[in-house]
Design goal:
Helix content: 10-25%
Number of strands: 42
Number of helices: 9
Distance between the termini: 33 Å
Strand content: 35-45%
Strand order of the largest sheet: 5-6-4-3-7-8
Number of domains: 3
Structural class: mainly beta
Largest sheet: 6 strands, mixed
Amino acid sequence: MLDIQTFDARRGGNVLYKAFTHPLTAEAMAGLAAELRAAGTLAVFDPEGIASALYALHPDMPVPVAYYVQDVAALDGALAGVTARPVTELGQCRAATLLIAGFDTRRVEGRVRGLCAAGVRVVSLDGTRLPAAMLTARAYLDRLNFATNHAFFRDEAGRHTRLTSANYWAGYGARAVRLWLRLFGADGAVLATWEEELPAGAGGFSIDSREVRGRFGLDAFTGQLFLHAIGVAGHDVVKYALDVYGDDGAGCDVGLSVTHDANAWPSDRYAGLPAPGADERVMLWVQNSHAAAIPAGAITLDRMGAEQPVALAREVAPFASLAVDVRALLPEVAWPAQLELRTGRHVVRPRYEIFKRGHSRIAHVNVERADLRPDPGIRTLHNLLGRGYILPFPVLPPEEFRTIVQPNPMAEWQDSLPLRLDVFGENGRLTAQRFLGNLARAHAVALDLAELGAEAGHAELVYDFRDGGEADGWMHGLFRYEHRASGHAADTSFGAHIFNTAMTYKDEPQSYSGPPPGLTTRLFLKLGIGVRRSFAVLIYPASADWHAFSATELQLLDGTGEVVAREALRVACSGSVLVRPHEVFGEAALRQAGERGYVLVRDATCRLFGYHGLDDGQGGFSLDHMFGF
C-alpha cells in the first residue's frame, strides 16, 4: 500500500497529496530526481514528515545516505530503509546535496544552511512547483491551488463521453476561472494538453470527447482526463456529470449511461462492485492516478466478506488505464454476490462497465472507509431525529422498469447491516415496508421492489435493530434499474444521511447554509445530448416531520449563467417528482439556453436529493445521483 495520507473525514483532503500527484509536478519531480542523482550523494531533511509520501509517489528519487527529522516522535522512522537521525546532527552530514522535503522553504533553508557542513548544497521542492500562472492562492499548499480531479474519458467505436458541469465558483466570487486539462491514453501517454476558459458567470460548460478528438486529430482512445480548475473561490472540488453515449440514431445497443465526479482521493478499498450475472460481463476499469507504476499484485478482487483476495498479476503503467475482466479473476462468483476491490491507494474512484445482450452501461464503486467504528448512539437516537439515517433512491414507473436494491458494506469493520426498506408513493404516503434483517458482510441480498408492489415514487433504506446489529452512519446501497422492453439497465449508488430535521446529530443533517433550520438545495441538472432528453427524480426525504411541501424553483440557465426561465415546483414531504426539462420549460426555452445550459434546482426550505439521467426514447436511459454546489 502507498504510504500516503489522502482524505480524512474530519480535516478534509490532504492538499500535499494533490500537489505531489499533479501531472506537471510529476514531470518536474522526474527532473529533480535526475539532477540529484547526477550531483552525487543525497541527504534528506524532513521538517514536516512528508518525505515518505514523496518517495511513495515518486519512487525514482535517489535513496539518501542520511535522513534527518526534527520531530522527536519521528526518530523511530525511516526513509527508503535509512533510519531517521535528529536534525541536530546535520553538521555531520557529508552528502553532496541536502534536500529539504517541503515547499515555501526559504526561511527554513536559511536556518538549515547554518547547521550544515561547508560545501553541502541545499535545495528544496520549490523547483517542482506549478507555474505561477496556474496558482490561485499565495500559499502554495492552499487547497484552492489544487482544485483537481480525474474523469474516465473515451472516444472509440461509436462511443463517446461528455463531461458537463457549471462554473459554480462564480457564485463564491471567482471572476476568471479556467481549466487546465490533460488527456492520457490507455498506455498512460499524454495525448493532449490544453486550457479552456469558463463563463464569467455561473454558466454551464461541457467537454465532449468527439470535439477533443477532432481538435487534436487523435485516433480512437480510452483513458482518463485530468482537470485542474484555476482561479476558483470557495470550493476546491471539481464536480461533474459524465455521460457515456453513442452516435445519434444508433439506439440503446451502443450504450447510454452516466457517472459522476471521480472523488479525487484514493482509498485502500472500494465496495459496491457487482459480480457478473450469468449473461453479463463485468469489466473493472483500473486507472492509475499517479506517476508511479502500480506493481503487479497490488490490485486485488475478493468476494465481499470472503477475505480471499485474488491479485491482478500485471503492472499498470503511470497514468495508464486497464480493463480487467472480473470473471477472469473470480470465475465462480456471480450476482447477486458483490465484490471488494483493494487498490493500495493507487487509484481514485474506479469505474466498472457491464455488457449484457448487446447493451452496456458504466458506473462507479465507492470508497470503503477504514476509519469508522460502530456508533452506539445511532441505536438510541433521540425521537426528535425520527428515523435518523436514511438512504433514498427512486422507484421508477413499475410498468416500464424493474427497480432492484442491494445494500453494500462500505466500511472495513461492517459485518452486520441491520436494515429495513420503507417505500413511498410520489405523494409521500408510506405504501410498503420490508425488514431485510441483520445482514452479514457476505450477504447476497438483491430485492426487486416488485415483490412489495411498489408504485412509482421512491424508497429508503433505514436502520432497524430488531434483530440486533451495529451501525456507523455510513450506510450504502447499489440501485439497479432495468427497462422491461429493451433490456437496457443502469446502476447507481450512494450513502445515507439524516435529512430535514431541525435537531442535529454530530455532522448531520448536512447541507446547512447556516445554523438549523438552514437546510437548502442547490442541485445541477444537465440538459440533453442530441436526441437524448434529460430527466431527474427529485426526492424530498425527511427523517422526521418537516414542511408539508417543498418550495422548489427550477431555474433554466444558459451557457453564460443568465436565467432564461423559472418554474415553481412543490414536492410532498417524503414524496418525489419526475422532472423532464423539455416538458417543464418547452422547446423554445431550451433552445435559448443552448447545449451548455442547465437547470439549477433551488430550495431555501429543505434539502432535496436527486437522481438524473438521459432517455433516448428507444429504451436506452441512464441514471446516477445528482450533485450540488
